[in-house]
Amino acid sequence: xxxxxxxxxxxxxxxxxxxxxxxxxxxxxxxxxxxxxxxxxxxxxxxxxxxxxxxxxxxxxxxxxxxxxxxxxxxxxxxxxxxxxxxxxxxxxxxxxxxxxxxxxxxxxxxxxxxxxxxxxxxxxxxxxxxxxxxxxxxxxxxxxxxxxxxxxxxxxxxxxxxxxxxxxxxxxxxxxxxxxxxxxxxxxxxxxxxxxxxxxxxxxxxxxxxxxxxxxxxxxxxxxxxxxxxxxxxxxxxxxxxxxxxxxxxxxxxxxxxxxxxxxxxxxxxxxxxxxxxxxxxxxxxxxxxxxxxxxxxxxxxxxxxxxxxxxxxxxxxxxxxxxxxxxxxx
Length: 332
Description:
Layout: H1 3-8, H2 11-14, E1 37-39, E2 55-57, E3 63-67, H3 72-84, E4 91-94, H4 122-129, E5 141-144, E6 150-152, H5 155-164, H6 183-198, H7 200-205, H8 210-230, H9 244-260, H10 275-285, H11 296-306
Parallel strand pairs: 1-2, 3-4
Antiparallel strand pairs: 3-5, 5-6
Helix pairs in contact: 3-5, 3-9, 6-8, 6-9, 9-10
């Protein structure tokens, strides 16, 4: 292809996800399709579907959380499930980190089918819920095992609901990840982290225009600088206790040097070159529910083998050395 042909191609033609690319080459994430909730005030009886406001009843053992260990959005709910002690209340399904053209696959399970849902692809649950769905199939997805329908793929609300709606099933001594007295400060902080960091790395990595990439890059590192300063005099983002804000920031930080710095061209500096953010990230990694839910093999193979527009060779980097995450952090 000639230089002229390259320059004349539309941003969508060059994008990893053409439907989610704006006219200026900016990545525009698709909205979450399924936004029902599992709540304590659902008017539905146990075993029933949602009430007329889309609220499903809280029931231990009824719902299956489908995740990819590679995905930062899904990783949030995995961490929350561990921290809150909901392992027996909500079962976990893990998809193959490598997607094909049909999306997330259950090829890690015997026979290539999820043993509870009986499906080979998460897309089957999506289509069972909306037979006209044509968007990208995403994780996490909370699926009702009675009907095979997707309750929600609304990952930010799902994480909050694990903290606030499943409280009767929390383990004794489970942390309050979304304290009511801190929400007025937490909510805008988490929105800033989402816009500039969590989604910011994707806006840089999936950009197909120079201006779109540079805008995302600048916003990302401006926000990381602010967070670096914030963590200079406090152990966690909200003070001396872990909250949902830390969960949301961690899932991006733990992928930063392994994926985002190189693969998504977020290369002003590595996480290991931030004094406070790097120590903070190690502190969390060495806390139960965080590091023990990280799978660097799944993370690297997913990003480097499924984003063929960005990494057409399919070569997966060997590094960085994961043992560095276990070095002392001096924040305890």
